[in-house]
Amino acid sequence: MHKPSGPVLSGVLGFFEDPQTLLEATAKVRDSEYKNFDCFTPYAVHGLEHAQGLKRSKIPFVTAAFAFTGTTLAFLWQYHASATWWPHIIGGKPMNSLPAFVPVMFELSVLLGGLATFFAMLYFNRLPNLKKRAFDPSLTNNRFAIVIECPVTDEYEGVSADSFSTEKAEQFLKSIGATETRKVYEEGWF
Amino acid sequence: MEKQTEMKTETKFEKPRHWVSMEELTPDYWSDPAIQERRSQEFYDKPIETLEKIENLDKAGVSRRDFLTIMGASMAMASFACARRPVNKIIPYVVQPQELTPGVPLFYASTYTEGSNSYGIVVKTREGRPIKLEGNELDPYSNGSLSARAQASLLRLYDPERLKSPMKGTKSGSKSTTGWSEVDAMIAAAIKASKNVRVVTAPHNSESTRRLMKEFMAAGSNIKWTEIDPIGMGDVADGQQASYGNAVIPNYAFDQADVVVSFSADFLGTWGDTLGNASKWSKKRKLNKASDNLSKLYVFESNMSITGASSDERFAVIPGTEVAAAVAVAHEMIVVQKKGKFAGNADVQAMLSGKMEEWLAKAGGLDVAKVKKVASDLVEAKGKSLVVGSGSVALQAVVNLINSNLENEGKTVDGTADHVVASGNVKALLELQSEMNAGKVDLLIIQGLNPVYFLPAGDAFADAMKKVKTVVAIADRVDETAQHADVVLAESHYLESWGDAHPRASVHTLQQPAISPIHDTRSFEEVIMGLVRAGIPATGLLAQVAGNTKAGYYDFVKENWKQSMFPQLGKGQSFVDFWETSLQKGVLVNKASSAKERSFNVSSLKAAKDAITVLKPLSLGQSKKGPALEGTGMVLGLYSSVSMGDGSNANNAWLMEMPDPISTVTWDNYLNIGPVYAKELGITSNDVVLVKGEGFSFEVPVFVQPGIAKGAGTLALGYGRTASGKVGNNVGVNAFKAAKADANNGLQLSGMVVSITKTGKKYELAMTQGHFRTEGRPILNDITIGQFKKDPEAAMHTDPHLKLKEVPTLWAPPVDYAKNPYRWMMGVDLNSCTGCGACVIACQAENNIPTVGRDRVRQSREMHWIRIDRYYSGDENSPQVVFQPMMCQHCENAPCETVCPVVATSHSEDGLNQMTYSRCVGTRYCQNNCPYKARRFNFLDHWKEYKDTANMVWNPDVTVRSRGIMEKCTFCVQRINEAKSHAKDKKTKIKDSDLKTACQQTCPTEAIVFGNVNDSESAVLAWKNHPRSFRSLEILNTKPAINYLSKVRNVEGGHEHHEEANNGHHG
Amino acid sequence: MATTVNHDQEKPLVPVYVTGGRTFAELTDDVARPLETFPTGRWWVCFIAAMLAFAVGATLLLQTFKTGVGLWGLNQPVGWGNDVTTFVFWVGIGHAGTLISAILFLFRQKWRTGINRSAEAMTIFAVMTAGITIMTHTGRVWLAAFWLFPYPNQRQLWPNFRSPLEWDVFAVSTYFTISLVFWYVGLIPDLATVRDRAKNKIRKVALTILSLGWRGSNKNWLHYEQAYLIFAGLSTPLVLSVHSVVSFDFAVSQIPGWHTTIFPPYFVAGAIFSGFAMVVTLLVLAREAFNLKHYITLDHMELMNKIIMTTGMLVGYAYGVEFFIAWYSGSSFEKFTFINRAFGPYWWAYWIMVSCNVFIPQLFWVRKFRRSIPIMFVVSLYVNIGMYFERFVIIVTSLHRDFLPSSWGTYVPTVVEWGIFTGLMGFFFIFFLLFVRFLPAIAIGEVKSVMDQPTNKEGAHHA
Predict the structure, then answer these.
(1) How large a percentage of chain B has pLDDT more than 90?
(2) DSSP label at B235?
(3) Closest Cα partner for B444 from B429, B456, B459?
(4) How many CB atoms lie under 10 A from the CB of residue B971?
(5) C213 and C229 in contact (C-beta within 8 Å)?
(6) In whole angstroms, what is the distance from residue B646 CA to residue B149 CA?
(7) Which has more pLDDT, A7 or C249?
(8) CA of C332, closest CA in chain B: separation in Å?
């Protein structure tokens, strides 16, 4: 196979003007030979993940795990601070005043859970992303797009690197309702 | 140094005997200034710098050394910038006194004298500073207690405004300090030059002083000495003189009396031997079981005093008409009931003839039936009753009659054995004044007295002083009187000077200095000694001691004791031992012969007869609201307040900020008017009225005080000073101006008819307690003897619904307090507490509690750790009063501890609620959550007000709190820890006798006990299980560590539990 | 062969959240334009005013640090006054934001999209203000500033976890953190939008970094939506807990008037009440200033006014219940406290509270008033005042006459305290004004998701 010179081709992009057409088109791409593609939309289009055939996100498990850690840590911490490290007699209350510890336990669960969620989201989304430039300004404004990515390796289920022809892809996108298509290249932000 | 300069001035040169180098033998060596400069540095403390100077190398302006110093300093400052505590220089001892260990207090026995009373005290000193006064337990009268004024007298020692050396030219206005040698010479010359020298002083109840003066006056016959007690018990002495022929102040045995009747004699607060009275009286008020009997106290008084507040039955009388009430009682007893020694006596009958109803009407409309009851109660307790009075000689005559009639004379009244020898009163002063006016006095030496202030016609006295060639004042400040003197001799504080006291036959006390004079001052005796040394002839011991330049007044006292006291008291021991033990004890008691009954001279009743015949029924002028108030006739009575007395302590911030026990007003005096009368006049508290009388008028704020008779008003003495100092000047009005004084009756403080006019101005009095009612809340327990005898359990609970001994709890307590060797608790007996406020000041002195000033009190930010809550119950016009000392309750379930976010307050295993100042961040949450509001917050850096010498009063064992910190009663934890370490040394446990809190120690009625409830012998345990014991607000289940003993009144029947009247709110 | 559907003629079946038939592009323009142009004179006036107010407050606060809290009117019975009142006031206001973004999200209330961004911003700034207040109310700020936080001293002494004030520290800081993160997550796509239209180089770089290089890939949207949902789920109990914990400051203590179980729900209702009032106050101004009338529509305002009226009646109910329970408890202390509240020395404060919070919002029964900008503005101001007094009444009237009549007193805030109060207002508005100036005040992405289908008449040629 040959090394491509100049900017690395990343795929073929087709613009769509409204969510409905995008949804229908995405479903068609999903069922086509092109397995490696993604949609770009200015907002979260409802149902697109199904049309695109994406699996549910794993974030909830992360959140749960950290939330429970928070609860436990909070209890152990308060217990030892009040009862073992330097116990003080406070208002005739028992050293382990569990009811009094509940608020902090709750708050810490939320805190850890929340932060975990945030970082998990970044992780799964490969954010912050400073390498891959947005394909077109309008994609965060008012237009929608499907990008069929050209395969990078030879062994690629569906079409092989050699057999991948941008023309064919563009044709296909047009055929499913793209108002405009173009080749897009790997570009960084700066 | 001096030698060098002398040398410089010398013209003729002589070779030094010892020389170090050849050139020293040449004259020009010595005359060289550079050399002199160098030699002046006997030891070069900064040799380099000195050389630099001499070799003037410091062209740079700042020498290398200085530069380093400054640099070091700036670095130090930079690193100290965030330190909160005041940074003070400390200087270690070069040679440490062997008896002194830093951190370990030394106690010296000494004597506190006030008027004709002297009490033995123990002075606690730390590193040479007196920091706390306590009563001397060997004193048979104070029993180790001390009054608020005595406690506060410590602060006067450190008053920054004390005179620091003698002053001259005070009269001319060109004040300048001078030296003792100069004034000695000057006064000695004056004495020699003058025919008639008069020395007037405050009472010195001291044999040594009296001997000193005798020997001082013996040589020159031109000197005359008078002791004067301005608002003391002159009337009593005169009355005794009239009735029994000896001018004494009897010793009253309140502990022998089952029925006590007082006619305006505030014997618990301000009248006579208050400490002795209170402690004796309270012995009959302890009610430990239902079978115990309780003495009964009737009080007829014009002002609401703490004695009246502690009485079982109180009669509000018009000021000056007490005599009428007294006569009524005597009449009922002798004429009507025909009881007692004089029942058959025709002369007495004649003297007492008249209509009881009339007298009682004149006295302010007293209930005849009740007064009859008083008489019969007295008769019942024949020989075991006691009547006292204060006001006029006439009143004294009747009082004496009743006592003699009931054969109390010689039993509860002791005028022969252990009485107090009365000193002169204002009469003598007025005689002196007329002499001065007549130009008969050439030299006046006046000590410890301020007649220009306390005489009604003070200015007249000042004018009289102008007619005297030379006036010498011996005072610790240039007060109103000293201002008119030619020379003011700076007087030492009593803690700085030697002396002794012999207040009554059975008591001898020694006055040891606890600190050497802070300033260049002398005691009165030292002044006299100085005069003798300056050439005034003296005889006997004085001459002998003064002759010896090394000797001082100490030697005089010692020698005097050797000659007079040692023979009678030092049984079979050497004088040295006797002297040393006496110094240690401070108080020596010798058996007083038992009292004998004196025969009553009936003719003395004449005065009373006259007095009541001239009494006119009170006629009030217009009493419509508004301007019609003009010219309202009102009868004015003056009283000395518990804190201020005669006003000599006006510059004492502790006393100024001490809440009046009754009104809780601080920092001012005010006109007390009864509620009904006030309503009629249309004036309320804080209204300023103009008071006009014969030859005086002043504006004063009104305070509506329950328990003052209609048509009467009372005003406290001791305020309105103009030359006392920053603290005391222009606080309130000088009530003495309203008094009457004449050569026959002396100073008369009540019965003046005045007119009051509403000015429309308002003046906010600084009160510490705005609300006067318990609102029927389960705060304290106030029942009658009847209720108690019927059901002693009634006293156990503040809330009638509460019958549980222990409230069940959801969880086990964190520790088992019973297992701990100690658990600290306190008991407070509301029946013994007279509200005198001694504990408040003792606590202030012990715990470094700052004063905050009038405005801060108005903002209710006072810092006292103990406050004495005073509640009224019953009818507004004759209210019943109960005092409740309220401080941190050290609750087992302390609400304050739970809410502190930083664990700045927690509980110790021995039951203390601890405050960790250094941890406190000042959220004030604990204060909000404290149901007793016992916590005090430092809103500002109050300690900064204690400037220069005043700083020395701090107790080094207690942290001085900076702003932003919460504080409160600690149960004197510093004392507990000290006791613990002593116990540890002795390998024992702390017993009651080893430990007393400041408040407990000073309480004259033993109303406070403190100790370890885990110790089965402890008094506090007994009080915990006492039938009268209850806990305040126990319904909240805070489990306080303070057990109060219920107030039980000796009155018939049972008034409703917590009887209340509505709207008790002031301001 | 673009199949663009034209809805212009059709009557929308779904309620209209954006009026004037705006397209996506127009929406983006409308929201982003204010950020790209030089601020208006009106903005500057407000900003400078806020700065001045803050300067005054800051000076007085420093003065207080130097001299001590003695400069305030606090005293022996009344340990808390204006300081803690202000704290509760701001925390309360801080509730509307998260409520709108979280609870309304869970309830699928689409109309929230128009207002949630600014409401969240308000929340964050309000909580910041509250934080300052609670830290500086202490006597020794220099220590409180770190001892209140869970941090042991060298002897392993930690804070007292039994103290409600300590719970506050956790509740408020957690609430702040989570709200901030939530808000930022919401901002990411919008920042990307603004980035993609940025002309200026620095601006572009800055926004690229802030937007974390968001490209709107649907794979990202998947996780993004999931995270957003979880945040909503976490914030809902959180927002309820925060004011409950604040109410514990009072409920857990035992002063009559504080020691009440009704406090948590009562406080939360009050918080939502005051929060929405503040949102209305701010949005009325915002939509005027940045003509966002199409996105913050009268319908939005009306809905908020309905909530204000409802919560207003909730607090009214609470006021009533307090009295009933005081009587029903049979505790003499409780009874007295509540009679004293309404008829004691602070009766005026109590009746201001009742009329502002209960009576005045009743206007909203009338649709005309609900939809009238001037009226709702005035009412919202009254509610803000009323809610300040609610906290004042709870704190001061309970403290100034508690168990022992001997230690009763009164409290009057000093000039210094009012100065600091004003300064904090300034502090809040400084941040809010900066927000509307530099960040999209409306959640562009979310609004797009609830707009009816775009009508790209000439959308065909963009690149």
Answers:
(1) 34
(2) H
(3) B429
(4) 26
(5) no
(6) 11
(7) C249
(8) 7
Task: Tell me how crowded residue C458 is: count the other CB atoms within 10 A of its CB.
Answer: 6
Q: Does C260 touch chain A (CB under 8 A)?
A: no
pLDDT on residue B929: 93
Helix (H, G, I), strand (E, B) or coil at B688: strand
Asked if A90 and B898 come within 8 Å (Cβ–Cβ), the reply is yes
Q: Kindly report the three-state secondary structure assignment for every residue of A58-93.
A: CHHHHHHHHHHHHHHHHHHHHHHHHHHHCCCECCCC
- B894 touching A (Cβ < 8 Å): yes
Helix ranges (DSSP H) in chain A: 19-31, 48-52, 59-80, 98-124, 166-175
Residue B299: per-residue pLDDT:
94
B569: CB partners within 8 A, 6+ apart: B508, B578, B582, B588, B590
- Answer whether B893's CB lies under 8 Å from B1037's CB: yes
Residue from the list B777, B903, B929 with its beta carbon closest to the beta carbon of C160: B903
Task: Give tens-digit pLDDT for A114-170.
Answer: 999 999 999 998 888 877 888 888 888 888 899 988 776 544 455 555 667 788 888
Q: Which of A116-125, B71-80, B1017-1026 has the lowest mean pLDDT?
A: B71-80
Predicted pLDDT at B201 = 92
Q: Which residues contact A93 (CB under 8 A, 6 or more apart)?
A: A100, B811, B814, B898, C162
Q: In a 10 Å sphere around its CB, with 0-12 CB exposed, 13-18 middle and 19+ buried, how is residue B694 labelled?
A: exposed
Judged by CB atoms closer than 8 Å, whether chains meet at A90 and B815 is answered as no
Of A10, A13, A18, which to mutate for an interface test with C (greatest number of C Cβ within 10 Å)? A18
- Give the C-alpha separation, C182 to C159, whole Å: 29
CA distance B771 to chain C (A): 6
CB-based contacts of A144: which residues, under 8 Å, 6+ apart? A15, A16, A17, A18, A19, A21, A22, A39, A40, A41, A42, A45
Residue B73: other Cβ atoms inside 10 A = 10
Token reading at C296: 């913050």
Rg of chain A over Cα atoms, rounded to whole angstroms, equals 26
Q: Which residues of A touch B1039 (CB under 8 A)?
A: 92
Q: By the 8 A CB rule, do C47 and C303 touch?
A: no
Residues 6 or more apart whose Cβ sits within 8 Å of residue B438: none
d(CA C135, CA C126): 14
Q: C5, C31, C108, C217: best mutation site toward chain A, by most A Cβ within 10 Å?
A: C217
- Angle B737-B741-B742 from CA coordinates, rounded to 5°: 155
Question: E strand or H helix at B914, and its extent?
Answer: strand B913-915
**Tokens (6 digits) for B486:** 């030619």
Note whether C402 contacts B921, CB cutoff 8 Å. no
pLDDT digits (tens, 9 = 90+) for C44-85: 999 999 999 999 999 999 999 999 999 999 998 999 999 999
Whole-model pTM: value is 0.85
Q: Which two tokens stand for residue B750?
A: 């009540």
**B1038 to chain A, closest Cα gap in Å:** 9
Which one-letter amino acid corresponds to residue B774? T
pLDDT digits (tens, 9 = 90+) for A54-84: 889 999 999 999 999 999 999 999 999 999 9
Tokens 């050290």: give the residue. B890
Find, among B642, B684, B714, B662, the residue nearest to B871 by Cα.
B662
Q: Hey, are the CB atoms on C138 and B921 less than 8 Å from each other? A: yes
Average pLDDT value for chain C: 87
Q: Average pLDDT, whole number, for chain B?
A: 84
In terms of CA atoms, which chain A residue is nearest residue B911?
A89
CB contact under 8 A, C166 and B927: no
Structure tokens at A173: 């996108």
- Is the confidence at residue C462, as pLDDT, over 90? no
